[in-house]
Amino acid sequence: MVLVNRKPHNSCLTMAYQCEGKRIETIESISEDRLDQIQQIFLEEGGFQCGYCTPGMVISLKGVLNECSNPTVEDLKVGLSGNLCRCTGYGGILRSLERISEYNKEYVYFTRCKDFLAWDVYERIISDVRNLGPTSAKTIC
Ligand code: FES
Questions:
Q1: Atom number of ligand 1 nearest to Cα 57
Q2: Which end of the chain has fewer CB atoms < 10 Å from its terminal CB, N or C?
Q3: Measured from the CB, is residue 58 less than 6 Å from ligand 1?
Q4: Cα 141 to ligand 1 centre (Å)
Q5: Ligand 1 centre and the CA of 57: distance in Å?
């Protein structure tokens, strides 16, 4: 699974010539010096075991977030369709989807700040925001 112009595509069914001039993002390109938020949440919630399916899940979820900044758990589940996991029994994956959805509800308040903050600083702010409530969060940035 890769993102072609920010939309998920099966890499095994996409010919190189179809991508000429288009932006390609792989699992390796979405995180440089720290994990992407989706990867971090999968790690914390036990969303994988062997990790074979995880790159496809993460890229698919990135595609959902590129289309919708505040997805519901159902939106995220639909975005994962076609990705199969043979290990986890989906409990950890579903917990991850709930956290991603919750995280992105708060994320919409911080879209202007997120690119400038390290993950741990961002997480601390989000934690403070949870204590303040969403109305107060709107006024922070
Ligand atoms: S973690 Fe092994 S296939 Fe999903």
A1: 4
A2: C
A3: no
A4: 38
A5: 10
pLDDT score at 38: 94
Point out the ligand 1 atom lying closest to the alpha carbon of residue 51. 1
Q: How many CA atoms lie within 13 A of 74 on its CB side?
A: 0
Tell me what pLDDT residue 131 has.
58
- Assign domain 2-107 one CATH number from 3.30.565.10, 3.40.190.10, 1.10.150.120, 3.40.50.1820: 1.10.150.120
Task: Report pTM.
Answer: 0.76
| Distance from chain centroid for Cα 119 | 13
Q: Say whether 30 sits in a helix, a strand or coil.
A: coil
Give burial (CB, 10 Å; 0-12/13-18/19+) of 97: buried
Q: Could you state, in order of their start, the residue ranges of all structural domains in the chain?
A: 2-107
